[in-house]
Design a protein that fits this description.
Blueprint lengths: L1 H40 L15 E6 L2 E2 L4 E5 L9 E5 L7 E9 L6 E9 L3 E3 L9 E8 L7 E9 L4 H5 L4 H10 L15 E2 L3 E2 L10 H5 L1 H20 L1 H7 L11 H13 L4 E5 L10 E5 L1 E2 L9 E2 L2 H13 L8
Helix pairs in contact: 3-8, 5-7, 7-8
Length: about 325
Amino acid sequence: MKFHNQFEKNRNRFAKLFLAQVKMSLMLVIIMLNVFCLYAAEISPIVLPEKEFVVYDLKVENSTNEVTEGYTVYIDTAPTMPDIIVRIRPEYSLLTANMKYEITYNQNGRNDLKPYSATTFVNSWNVNYNGEFHGGEAVVTVSSGTISQTLTRNLHIRGTNPSKDTVKSGLNIYQQVVVYKESYPRWCQFTTGGLPIFGPPNGWGLMQLDPPSGEEVIWNWHTNRTAGCNMLSWKYNHGLNYPADVRVAGYTQARDWISEEERWTDGFQLYNGGHAYHWVLDDPIGPISGPGRWERCEVVVGPPYPEGTCSGYGFDAWNIKVNVESGNPPNGW
């Protein structure tokens, strides 16, 4: 029993000593922390240079291909404008960026400018053309309060010609004849370099629309074809009324067209300019209400085309139509 009491006394003494040591250690830690805090308060904070950690770069993509400086992207044969995706690298960057994509075309008297822009809070922008068609030269510009410099990328936008069969598809023989005559190279909207075909004074594309209604018919072959076919239809109907207009002018015996050749030759010629026939009095010095006849206009090199003359476009177009139907089409048909 005496030994047991002595053991309990020793254990209690050691426990008290251990607790005293723990308290002493905690006090030393607290004192050291207080000293460190006081010391740190006297030291100026370290300031890292702004944007020290990230070097920003611009990445432009077309589908899966990167668009490098001077790269050429193409309007496809569908037609569809090329996909353009603008990114800021590194890709984990989250910043407010002002992105611009401007397309200009300044050839053959054009002065076209189409801007697209977006303010984005992420690092990428997929350009939305809103169904419009434009081409020429393009520049991507990105600026931001987070970026110290303006990032730019220059590229080219060019067109792609569909196949001859695609162009012909859905057209009747009369429309095909006009496309054949107007386009050079044949059945093409664009040159081999991808620029719109231009013909003086102001004709553009497959059907040499003069003047063009806008950029759409210059860069979209399908819209150009549709507009040209509509124009041919309007010209043909206008030509059907020509004999009646001559009668109203006092030449009361001028007859209506009596054959498909007369109707379409005049319609073709009107597409190019002027009429293919003119009313000639049997008695040149008699009254204009006297008898007469329709005569082919004299083919001359012009313009201008004096009264009773024309370019001969309508006669040539009709001959092409006849030869195609007889199995003897012209070269390149």
